[in-house]
Specification:
two-stranded antiparallel sheet, five-stranded mixed beta barrel, 11 strands, single chain, alpha+beta
């Protein structure tokens, strides 16, 4: 099975659905007309299919190797060469600030490339992905001098970045972290502590690794209010900005993991290591959230990307696998059996997967456009709206797309049957790789709590009200004359259910927070279904318009057939999510702890 990048689908989203050319006045968009973007994505497809995809299976089988004496990590064969090709072609700089060597293209362009990279090899794609997050945090909290020194090398990929949060006793509850920082006479800080599960923490294909480390100053307030963020490079830059003295930090071990074997997940030990404060003392978590939010969006993308790759493998397998006959009579009478594609249950798994992938991809591009508007829209109100959306929808993007990415990948293994449970086919690796996406950067349960507990009430519920108003305006504009009325009706119905769920949370969650917590993931999934309904309404309109304008490209008719599967097979889940959340917490909380 060879990975196939979804170039055609991105062309549809960019040109037909979102018409990104209409934003030519937004900074960064002038050089990103749709024809130029598609030329870039054609090259991206070649790179990911021909350079990255071939190292996916071998990287999984070989994994990373730690030298216990030098504490150096060697990545799987081919990774170093692929990374060199990645940086030499400029792929790491697509959407970064031109002031520091970036190409300044919109985020939606980098989103498309990132999906292709993660789909071709999720473990490899994590290396530049973590660096993107470090760039976000450094841009938000670094001094001008720090930015000038570090950003050009991070953007070019010459150096890489990591995120150090978790400790052996402390995961999501960062207020418990023990890594300490002591201010030195030269204005720097000495960092001492241990961090675990540090993706890309040590490897052999950049000349420096810049660790962003959360630590606590002596005398700092307890809990999250006393956390600071430090940039701790593996090699301290010399006077010329090149890697100089080796810092006192090291990889003390590699995690033995279920999947993503090609990425080095490290135990990092800091022993009086020299670090540099980012932002203000005791305000590190605020800056780290720039990196964490970028990572959460990236994880949602990763979950969908692996799902797409798994779907492609399953569809190819189903076409070739001969087994049984169609219930309505043989479809290939010249062969000993029909392909398993004749069986409705196989088609159910494949088509439900495809409906989720295509809707999720549109959701990702729409989200990336909000990130662009958040930073670059000329109108302050437009920037405010996009910022509100990014805050509200980041947990939905992360959790919903990874929940569905896992389902897609599981169904892809099921399509393979017994073959999928062996290592002779790629289904097993995809299954092992995708599972982490539901866990890291905050488990999906934590994302749901963030949505319900923080994002909904933020700024008096302004973001949610704005989102509902946008949906209502879209329905009002399309309802009377729509050529795809079933999608408008579905969006209207699903949004009504989301409003119903929101009101239930307001009425039942305030007095008993367990009610809000117990229903939070179902509420998040209901929110995700509403967003997907919105995406499918826009996609169906674009596809039908192309057909009405005389296009005979089968792509558009196929899009509507897949959309019908979304309406009939996926959207009914909204009723179940609403019913479960309205059940409240009583059934979950009534069993005594000792009886578990």
């Amino acid at each position: 099975m060879t990975y196939k990048a979804p170039v055609r689908d991105y062309g549809f989203l960019i040109k037909d659905v979102f018409n990104t050319d209409q934003y030519h006045n937004v900074p960064g968009f002038a050089d990103a007309d749709s024809d130029t973007v598609m030329a870039i994505l054609e090259e991206a497809a070649k790179f990911t299919e021909e350079v990255v995809a071939p190292i996916n299976i071998t990287g999984d089988k070989e994994g990373c190797t730690l030298n216990p004496e030098t504490h150096e990590v060697t990545a799987p064969k081919g990774y170093k060469e692929a990374y060199k090709a990645l940086t030499e072609a400029g792929w790491t700089a697509l959407s970064s600030d031109p002031q520091y060597g970036g190409q300044g293209l919109p985020h939606f362009v980098n989103t498309a490339f990132s999906e292709m990279l993660s789909g071709a090899s999720s473990a490899f794609g994590m290396y530049p992905g973590l660096t993107e997050g470090a760039i976000s945090a450094l841009t938000a909290g670094g001094t001008d001098e720090q930015k000038a020194l570090y950003l050009p090398k991070l953007i070019s990929g010459e150096w890489s970045g990591t995120m150090n949060l978790t400790e052996p006793h402390c995961g999501t509850d960062l207020g418990l972290l023990r890594t300490k920082a002591v201010k030195a006479e030269d204005g720097s800080y000495r960092i001492t502590g241990q961090k675990i599960w540090i993706s890309a923490g040590e490897h052999d294909f950049t000349s420096n690794i810049c660790h962003l480390v959360l630590a606590r100053l002596e005398g700092a307030p307890a809990g999250v209010k006393g956390i600071s963020l430090f940039l701790v490079p593996k090699f301290l830059p010399d006077a010329d900005g090149n890697p100089g003295e080796r810092n006192s930090l090291q990889c003390a071990g590699l995690e033995h993991k279920m999947g993503i074997h090609g990425n080095s997940t490290c135990v990092m030990v800091y022993e009086d290591a020299k670090g540099f404060l980012l932002g203000q003392e005791n305000e590190g978590l605020k800056i780290m959230f720039y990196m964490m939010n970028a990572a959460r969006y990236g994880v949602g993308l990763q979950g969908l990307a692996i799902g797409h790759a798994a779907y492609e493998a399953a569809a190819a397998f189903a076409k070739d696998r001969l087994q049984g006959r169609a219930l309505t009579g043989p479809k290939s009478p010249d062969k000993p059996a029909d392909s398993i594609l004749v069986h409705p249950d196989v088609r159910r798994m494949l088509l439900e997967s495809r409906a989720l992938i295509e809707g999720g991809r549109a959701f990702l591009v729409w989200g990336a456009l909000q990130a662009d508007f958040q930073h670059h829209a000329e109108d302050e109100k437009a920037r405010e709206k996009a910022s509100d959306y990014m805050g509200l929808l980041t947990p939905v993007l992360k959790a919903y797309l990874t929940e569905k990415g896992f389902k897609i990948t599981s169904d892809a293994m099921q399509v393979h049957g017994g073959s999928g449970f062996t290592e002779h086919f790629p289904a097993s690796q995809y299954m092992r790789d995708v599972r982490i996406t539901l866990i890291y950067e905050g488990t999906n349960g934590v994302q749901a709590l963030d949505l319900v507990g923080r994002k909904l009430p933020s700024k008096g519920g302004r973001a949610l009200q704005t989102f509902f108003a946008e949906i209502d305006a879209y329905i009002a504009a399309e309802e009377a004359d729509s050529k795809t009325p079933q999608y408008i009706a579905a969006l209207k119905t699903t949004k009504t259910k989301l409003m119903d769920g929101t009101m239930w949370l307001m009425q039942n969650g305030m007095g008993n927070p367990d009610n809000a917590a117990a229903g939070s993931l179902d509420y998040l999934c209901l929110f995700g279904l509403t967003c997907m309904s919105y995406m499918w309404a826009m996609m169906a309109k674009a596809a039908q318009t192309a057909i009405d304008n005389g296009s005979d490209d089968p792509f558009y008719a196929t899009k509507l057939k897949v959309g019908r599967v979304f309406l009939e097979r996926i959207l009914p889940e909204a009723d179940a999510h609403l019913a479960k959340m309205k059940g409240g917490a009583e059934a979950l909380m009534s069993l005594e702890d000792e009886l578990f």
